[in-house]
Amino acid sequence: MTLRYTYTLFAPIYDAFVAPFTIGMRQRSLARLCDGPHDDILLAGVGSGLDIPLLPVGPHYTGLDLTPAMLVRARRKAIARNLELRLDEGDARTLPYAAAVFDVVILHLILAVTPHPERVLVETARVLRPGGRVLILDKFLRPGQRAPVRRLISPLLGLLATRTDVVLENILAQTPGLEVLLNQPALANGWFRQIILGKNL
Predict the structure, then answer these.
(1) Burial call 13-37: b when 16+ CB within 10 Å, e when fewer
(2) CA distance 78 to 82
């Protein structure tokens, strides 16, 4: 079962299950967009567009997702907000954009979903301008954390929707050029974390 197929099935009910417990985390993460001027922002793995109602007006937004059924829902939210948002179908592991074209890349609940999160971060670093930032919101294990249940169920859940054994530090070790600017708990005793990465000049 592919992630595209799974999330096509999830699309009609995704918002009802995910929105209630993630809206606060999303608001806190996206509030960082007000820290400075940003002209071009990429939402990689935009999904059904749960971030769209929370985005500040002004920048040029691009959203990318693997699943057409999710993009249909994201487009409705963008129209309702009258937001300047281009939506593309594509894979965050091979972004269809030139190098150094975005000031900010938003990765909300995507790194633990993809089977190759290191490739997503490498691609993110490639399309990010020098001095740009990555806003991450996701669930991560801490380095050395045992979490036997999460590790046990991760292979199965990874086939269906999301992995539960991802360690951010392991991914970053394979992604030169990005440094951690912020890493703080967001929910569930720190399992969900809000992270900001910066691209070295």
Answers:
(1) ebbeeeeeebeebbeebbebbeeee
(2) 6
| Fold of the CATH domain 3-199 | Rossmann fold (3.40.50)
Checking if the pLDDT of 8 tops 60, the result is yes
Closest CA to 89 of 112, 72, 106: 72
How do 128-139 and 102-108 pair as beta strands?
Answer: parallel
pTM: 0.91
Per-domain residue ranges of the chain: 3-199
The number of C-alpha atoms within 13 Å of 25 and in the hemisphere containing its C-beta is 25
Least confident of 32-36, 105-109, 169-173: 32-36
Q: What is the pLDDT of residues 145-187, one digit of tens each?
A: 676 666 655 555 555 567 768 889 999 998 888 999 999 998 8
The rounded distance, in Å, linking the Cα atoms of 74 and 51 is 9
Q: Distance between CA atoms of 138 and 17, rounded to whole angstroms? A: 16
Instruction: Please give the backbone phi and psi of residue 186, each rounded to the nearest 5 degrees, phi first.
Output: -120, -30
Site of tokens 């086939």: 159
Pick from 24, 45, 42, 44: which is nearest to 33 by CA?
42
Tokens of 44: 């990689």
| Pick from 153, 142, 7: nearest CA to 66 | 7
Query: Do the beta carbons of residue 28 and residue 194 sit within 8 Å?
Result: yes
